[in-house]
Design brief:
With about 350 residues, the chain is an alpha/beta fold. The protein has 13 helices and 12 strands. About 40% of the residues are buried.
């Protein structure tokens, strides 16, 4: 067998180690992380020769020394933690279009202010003290929790001890934790009013009623349906459209008697439902009226275009960032409840 050429040998050589954290830099320098921290903060406890060597390595590996030294002196990390608890449905993923849309706006807001994001998807029954450990890790300056899931009490307990935390979710009178979110009850009312005005005589609520936000949407829709004498019943599914497809198909095949209007807990569930209806030759909106919730960008691109309840995700992300930074500065901010808006298109 021939020997590898010089070029091949170079290609096979492992790339040089790249330091991304103080711990990485300490390992390369052969010192402790504490020594690196003290050196970059300009502390006299580190001798000049060692400090110069560490600073040279930091420059070589792309660390911004002035910013890092400032953060070390102020005991700040420059990192915001973002947690998504999925105690209500572990099959849901961060790739969900709603999460990705909100995360995109959040990243824009926070990076513009000089912060990095640390993202965690949390399955609470595997990690019961996930929030206490996150807020107490020393790795983040503040925390944003996206969705209360079934973790309301745990979030309340953390809020009693940790000020710089803001939650995307549903607001309840008397709660301690600071929330930014849509008035889900009012949004549910708008959805039911639209379906009934479009001629629906019996309404199905598609999705889980366990998470606080979705329970409020169902309660709002039910309050209108009860006032109008229109029957409404829940059609439980997972919240991930991929895993909900079989459940939606089962509902359409067995327990849809009389239902001619569907309020889906999210746009993605509404779109999955529309796909199943079209497979069965059921016309939307002729044979079934359909309303979603979120007004994600894809909602205007479906055929027919989806009627939905809009929550202003961009404005919500801006308020989350603003309130968190104010709380990081010591201010005990109030919650913000955003008004929902009916976006009338073609499905109802």
């Amino acid at each position: 067998m021939s020997e590898p050429t010089h070029e091949t040998a170079q290609e096979l050589a492992p790339p040089p180690e790249r330091a991304r954290t103080i711990t990485d830099l300490a390992r390369i320098a052969g010192v402790s992380p504490g020594t690196v921290s003290r050196a970059l903060a300009g502390k006299s406890l580190v001798n000049a020769k060692t400090r110069e060597r560490i600073e040279a390595l930091a420059r070589e590996h792309g660390f911004r020394l002035n910013q890092m030294a400032s953060r070390l002196r102020r005991q700040k990390t420059g990192v915001i933690g973002v947690a998504i608890p999925l105690g209500h449905d572990r099959r849901q993923h961060i790739s969900d279009a709603f999460f990705m849309t909100l995360l995109g706006y959040l990243a824009d807001e926070l990076t513009e202010r000089g912060y990095d994001l640390m993202l965690r998807r949390v399955i609470p029954d595997r990690d019961g003290d996930w929030l206490d450990r996150f807020v107490g890790s020393g790795m983040v300056d503040g925390v944003i929790v996206i969705g209360q899931s079934d973790q309301f009490e745990r979030i309340e307990a953390a809020a009693a001890r940790f000020l710089p935390m803001v939650v995307w979710g549903n607001h309840q009178e008397g709660q301690r934790h600071c929330v930014v979110g849509t008035d889900n009850f009012a949004g549910g009312r708008l959805a039911a009013e639209r379906l009934i005005a479009a001629g629906a005589s019996t309404i199905g609520f598609l999705g889980s009623t366990d998470p606080i936000e979705f329970a409020a949407r169902y309660a709002g829709a039910k309050s209108v349906a009860d006032d109008k004498g229109v029957p409404i019943r829940a059609l439980p599914t997972h919240l991930s459209p991929e895993h909900a497809a079989d459940e939606i198909a089962a509902h359409l095949a067995s327990d849809m008697a009389g239902i001619d209007g569907i309020f889906a807990a999210s746009d993605m569930l509404a779109i999955a439902c529309m796909t199943e209806l079209q497979k069965r030759g059921i016309d939307v909106p002729g044979g079934m009226k359909l309303v979603g919730f979120d007004d994600l960008p894809i909602a205007s691109q479906t055929r027919p275009a989806l009627t939905t309840i809009r929550q202003d995700i961009a404005a919500g992300a801006a308020r989350l960032a603003d309130l968190l930074l104010r709380r990081m500065g010591g201010e005990n901010t109030a919650s913000v409840v955003l008004p929902p808006e009916l976006v009338g298109r073609q499905t109802a």
